Amino acid sequence: MISGSLVPNITFFDVEGRLDLEKTRWHMDWMFKHGTDGVFLTGSYGAGPLMTYDERAAVYKAAKEVAARYTGKTLIAHVGCIDTASTVALAQAAEAAGMDAVGAVPPFYYKHSEDLILQFYREVVQATKLPVFAYNNPETSRFTFSLGTARKLQEMGLAGMKDSPLEVGFVSRVFYEMKHGGKNFQMILGTSKGWLPFYYMGVRAMIGGMNNWAPEIMTALVQATFSGDTEKAEKMYLLMLDLSAKLHFTDSTLASHMALYARGFDAGFPRKPMQLPPFDSPKYGEIRQWLEAGFAEAGLKLEVGPRG
């Protein structure tokens, strides 16, 4: 079972929009050093839909190289594409790169029936020996999973689902039905915002974007939760929610780059059409103040980079 706090890590590009594997490797290593339990590669945060097959496969290989320096880091490659053939090819590339599992959002842009979505996942499952996770993200895919869909996915061999909307009725019903039916189907939170209540229900893994820029706080939250330190876990949870809300002033990928710059790290660039505000924008200073206050409240030292 996948456990702990994983990151939907951002992918770094240079100012011309070329993949910057050196910075991408640095970032993964930095998060692992600060306790992040694994990565969810080339998803929404990671600019997967903006990348070529070769670029995404290169990120999978880079993650495997970085994780080899550590013990117990989970590597999930997001392989979802707008078409089935490209998704299958990426799933096979992920297996060749040594990933632990693959995840896939349903084919996006076009609106598809449930039958076509199920056929899409059937072909992915048949194409790889890796565990396959569905990714419920209706904002991007135009498809919302139902309990019936989850049942059919489990029957065809999917390992579980990453769920981003966190509609409590849906997540809890799928979780309890699979649990009491003795079915092997893991629910993974696609965000950190419901971590504590869903942990008490029995969920044991989340993919939280805040790991991109404040892994120390996410690690403190998860360690306190697993150790049973309820008071500290609740304090860290509230702090995480507060900081996350502050950083939701723009797209999450952009905010992650900006927060890293606010900490003094060279965080490269997102791929266009995404674009960072000018570096003299006062917003970077405001983010730095939020981080300083948050880390002080958590009793943690705010590590800063050479630009800090």
Question: How would you describe what is shown here?
Answer:
An 8-stranded parallel β-sheet has the order 7-6-5-4-3-2-1-8. By secondary structure, it is α/β, with parallel strands linked by helices. The longest helix has 17 residues, at 230-246. The chain has a single domain, classed as TIM Barrel (Alpha-Beta Barrel). The relative contact order is 0.12. Helix 1 (21-33) links the parallel strand 1 and strand 2 (38-41). It has helices at residues 21-33, 53-67, 84-97, 114-127, 138-141, 147-155, 168-180, 195-201, 215-227, 230-246, 252-262, 282-298, and strands spanning 4-7, 38-41, 74-78, 101-104, 132-136, 160-163, 186-189, 205-207. It has 12 helices and 8 strands. The mean pLDDT is 97. Helix content is 48%, strand content 11%.
Keywords:
single chain, 308 residues, alpha/beta, TIM Barrel, eight-stranded parallel beta sheet, 48% helix
SSE inventory with pairings:
Blueprint: E1 4-7, H1 21-33, E2 38-41, H2 53-67, E3 74-78, H3 84-97, E4 101-104, H4 114-127, E5 132-136, H5 138-141, H6 147-155, E6 160-163, H7 168-180, E7 186-189, H8 195-201, E8 205-207, H9 215-227, H10 230-246, H11 252-262, H12 282-298
Parallel strand pairs: 1-2, 1-8, 2-3, 3-4, 4-5, 5-6, 6-7
Helix pairs in contact: 1-2, 2-3, 3-4, 9-10, 10-12, 11-12
